[in-house]
């Protein structure tokens, strides 16, 4: 597969626009860009049994043959990951960074990226946004699945990180603090690739999601939303007792997906470059642990 310009993003580290290599691009274009494909996506491909079949394959020892082809096709920087022998493609998919490959910023007023991938940011979500989906599907009530649970986040900031297939598929806590709640929002498993979102704008608000509420001292209340996607085997949450900045929160098994972070109004502000590029309909590639937002002066309440 050669690079495609159908989806582009700004690489913060390299300082340039990069093309995204999209797995099964022609299939996605059919599923979400044609009448027959949309019918197939709704009746079959977005159902859990399809992702279960992908999970069964990715856990089998025979799937290891796919690892070398995948790393070469997507230029995965294997030197960044632990040098271990993978027993299956899923084992490779949930790989860990080697010690020192990524660090979480130690500036207390700066909010670090809790995942690695293509990022979008809004200082205030008002329901009028147009990229990557219609704004009503980005509101706290839509993402959290409950107007009551969403109330503290109305008019607040939102960051979304889309984990591409080649990215690190573990996610972390951006900050330390008390866990207040965790719940699951049932739904389908549509693709979360930008090609899909352009044709079906409600995916992030209708796919299966897991939500965690956290109270922090510096950034106020945070809502983490892990969004399931087509071919994602499952979302695994770690049994975390001591939550600190950078603690591993969980991981996605085989398949690309998306993680979102909502904040209270005025508690923190996403970096200007992220918001500017989002307004220009472009994602920004961010690395795990790098700063992507700043706490407002004296924001939040004591944890």
Written account of the structure:
The protein has 303 residues and is an alpha+beta fold. It has one domain. It is built from ten helices and 15 strands. The strands form three sheets. Strands 2-1-14-4-5-12-9-8-7 form a nine-stranded mixed sheet. Strand 8 (209-215) and strand 9 form a beta hairpin. Helix 1 (25-33) crosses helix 2 (35-45). The longest helix has 12 residues, at 48-59. The protein is globular, with a radius of gyration of 18 Å. The chain starts with 7 loop residues before the first strand and ends in an 8-residue tail after the last strand. Residues 1-5 and 299-303 have low confidence and may be disordered.
Q: Which key terms come to mind for this protein?
A:
303 residues, alpha+beta, nine-stranded mixed β-sheet, three-stranded antiparallel β-sheet, 10 helices, 15 strands, 24% helix, globular, disordered N terminus, disordered C terminus
Write the layout of secondary structure elements.
Blueprint: E1 8-11, E2 16-19, H1 25-33, H2 35-45, H3 48-59, H4 65-73, H5 89-93, E3 110-112, E4 117-122, H6 140-144, H7 147-150, E5 158-163, E6 170-172, E7 178-185, H8 194-199, H9 203-206, E8 209-215, E9 221-227, E10 235-237, E11 248-252, E12 257-263, E13 268-270, H10 272-279, E14 283-286, E15 291-295
Parallel strand pairs: 1-14
Antiparallel strand pairs: 1-2, 3-15, 4-5, 4-14, 5-12, 6-11, 7-8, 8-9, 9-12, 10-11, 13-15
Helix pairs in contact: 1-2
């Amino acid at each position: 597969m050669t690079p495609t310009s159908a989806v582009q993003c700004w690489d913060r580290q390299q300082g340039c626009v990069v093309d995204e290599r999209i797995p099964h691009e022609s299939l996605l274009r059919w599923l979400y860009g044609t009448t027959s494909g949309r019918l197939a996506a709704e009746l079959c491909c977005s159902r859990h049994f399809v992702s279960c079949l992908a999970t069964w394959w990715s856990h089998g020892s025979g799937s290891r043959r796919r690892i070398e082809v995948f790393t070469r096709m997507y230029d995965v920087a294997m030197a960044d990951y632990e040098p271990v022998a993978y027993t299956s493609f899923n084992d490779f998919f949930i790989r860990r960074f080697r010690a020192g490959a990524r660090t979480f910023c130690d500036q207390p007023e700066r909010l670090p990226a809790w995942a690695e991938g293509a990022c979008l940011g809004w200082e205030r979500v008002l329901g009028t946004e147009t990229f990557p989906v219609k704004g009503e599907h980005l509101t706290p009530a839509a993402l959290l699945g409950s107007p009551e649970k969403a109330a503290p986040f109305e008019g607040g900031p939102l960051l979304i990180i889309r984990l591409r297939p080649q990215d690190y598929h573990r996610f972390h806590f951006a900050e330390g603090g008390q866990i207040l709640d965790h719940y699951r929002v049932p739904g389908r498993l549509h693709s979360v690739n930008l090609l899909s979102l352009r044709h079906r704008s409600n995916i992030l608000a209708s796919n299966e999601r897991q939500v965690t509420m956290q109270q922090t001292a510096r950034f106020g209340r945070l809502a983490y939303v892990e969004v399931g996607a087509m071919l994602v085997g499952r979302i695994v949450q770690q049994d975390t007792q001591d939550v600190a900045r950078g603690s591993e929160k969980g991981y996605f098994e085989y398949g690309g997906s998306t993680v979102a972070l909502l904040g209270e109004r005025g508690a923190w502000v996403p970096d200007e470059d992220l918001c500017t590029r989002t307004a220009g309909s472009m994602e920004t590639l961010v690395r795990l642990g790098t700063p992507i937002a700043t706490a407002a002066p004296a924001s939040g309440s004591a944890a």
